[in-house]
């Protein structure tokens, strides 16, 4: 038994450092048959490194399926025995951690609804103190990087040596394209803050549907993510939770085969020379842009003084709408999205207002 445990522990360490790391399994463990068949079909693809399944499911409203509970853990243990693959489950309380470790779960993850609550994260961390098990932490539901960082730091503080991040998108009121907006700039910032830390993408929860899974997965790969967590079910349409975003093991295999995995670096001299030249051009353009924005703010200062002298308010809505309308028209010709233009002008406009407000209150 000790040799068997040690062997699985060594395998888990190998998987932890593998790139890309592929984690898959059903959103929820439903029945023993469903878990074991899904696991068997996933291992048969030869492309999955770790098996996942939701045992406890935090749901938005009461009455929804909240997971099979602890009785699903023996099914996962059996799936590990049959396939020889490590297993992982989500934990949200100290009891979840205790039960999962009792059934030799090889890796844990903290979900988005837990990450958002420091009290809950700390409870999980306290239960993990002194435990040698890898832990992944999903981004919080809301786009707050400090909460995400805080969860990581809490795990590290109790001695968890192997911590990784899962990007599963962020809630965005009124969003229709994605179930959870990816907001790619946020995981990119986390990668900047924790450059050596494992970062994987969860396209299932970002998309909320099957049709966009491949494109979102490819986007994450192109941004140098280290792997994927994708939900797979033997009968997706009849899944007890998140049916629309799950795919069969066979479709997962096809999709993984169609993805293009890129490397971060190359030793090709011609490529490096060309890239350095293009980057230098961007650096010059960035310098010019900053200079122009600085000049714009000096004019904003003058406008602020003029408005102050004539008792005119800083914000003039019609003027702002005209600016955006012209910018959208110009941006369309330049191939710039409305989203980018809006974010750019929002930032510039806010800075301009701050400048004018300072002038008017001097």
Give a structural overview:
The chain has 362 residues and is of the alpha/beta class. Helices cover 54% and strands 9% of the residues. It contains 14 helices and 8 strands. The chain has an 8-stranded parallel beta barrel with strand order 1-2-3-4-5-6-7-8, surrounded by 6 helices. Helix 12 crosses helix 14 and helix 13 (317-334) packs antiparallel against helix 14 (338-361). The radius of gyration is 25 Å and the shape is elongated. The termini are far apart.
Task: State the low-pLDDT regions, or none.
Answer: none
Q: In terms of structural class, how would the helical and strand content be classed?
A: alpha/beta
Determine Rg (CA atoms, Å).
25 Å
Helical residue percent band: 40-55%
Q: What percentage of amino acids are in beta strands?
A: 5-15%
Largest sheet: 8 strands, parallel, barrel
Count every beta strand, where a strand is a DSSP E run of 2 or more residues. Answer: 8
Tell me the number of helical segments per DSSP (H or I, 4 or more residues long).
Answer: 14
Shape category: elongated
The first-to-last residue Cα distance is 76 Å
- Summarize model confidence as the mean pLDDT: 91
């Amino acid at each position: 038994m000790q040799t068997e445990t040690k062997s699985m522990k060594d395998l888990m360490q190998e998987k932890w450092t593998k790139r890309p790391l592929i984690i898959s399994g059903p959103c929820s463990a439903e029945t023993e048959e469903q878990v074991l068949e899904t696991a068997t079909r996933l291992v048969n693809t030869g492309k999955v490194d770790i098996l996942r399944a939701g045992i406890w499911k935090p749901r938005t409203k009461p009455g929804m399926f909240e997971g099979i509970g602890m009785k699903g853990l023996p099914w996962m243990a059996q799936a590990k025995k049959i396939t020889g693959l490590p297993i992982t489950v989500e934990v949200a309380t100290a009891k979840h951690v205790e039960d999962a470790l009792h059934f030799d779960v090889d890796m844990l993850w903290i979900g988005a609804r837990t990450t958002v609550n420091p009290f809950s994260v700390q409870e999980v961390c306290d239960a993990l103190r002194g435990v040698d098990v890898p832990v992944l932490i999903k981004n919080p539901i809301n786009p707050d990087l400090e909460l995400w960082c805080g969860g990581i730091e809490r795990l590290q503080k109790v001695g968890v040596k192997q911590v990784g991040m899962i990007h599963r998108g962020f809630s965005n009121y009124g969003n229709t394209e994605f179930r959870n907006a990816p907001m790619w700039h946020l995981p990119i910032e986390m990668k900047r803050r924790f450059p050596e830390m494992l970062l994987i993408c969860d396209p299932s929860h970002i998309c909320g549907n099957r049709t966009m899974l491949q494109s979102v997965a490819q986007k994450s790969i192109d941004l140098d993510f280290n792997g994927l967590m994708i939900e797979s079910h033997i009968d997706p349409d009849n899944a007890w939770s998140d049916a629309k975003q799950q795919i069969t093991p066979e479709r997962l295999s096809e999709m993984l085969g169609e993805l293009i995995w890129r490397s971060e670096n190359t030793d090709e001299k011609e490529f490096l020379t060309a890239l350095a030249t293009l980057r230098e051009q961007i650096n010059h353009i960035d310098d010019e842009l900053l200079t122009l924005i600085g000049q714009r703010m000096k004019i904003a200062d003058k406008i602020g003084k003029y408005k102050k002298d004539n008792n005119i308010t800083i914000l003039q809505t019609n003027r702002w709408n005209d600016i955006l309308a012209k910018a959208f028209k110009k941006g369309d010709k330049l191939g710039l999205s409305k989203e980018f233009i809006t974010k750019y002008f929002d930032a510039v406009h806010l800075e301009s207002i701050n400048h004018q407000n300072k002038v008017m209150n001097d």
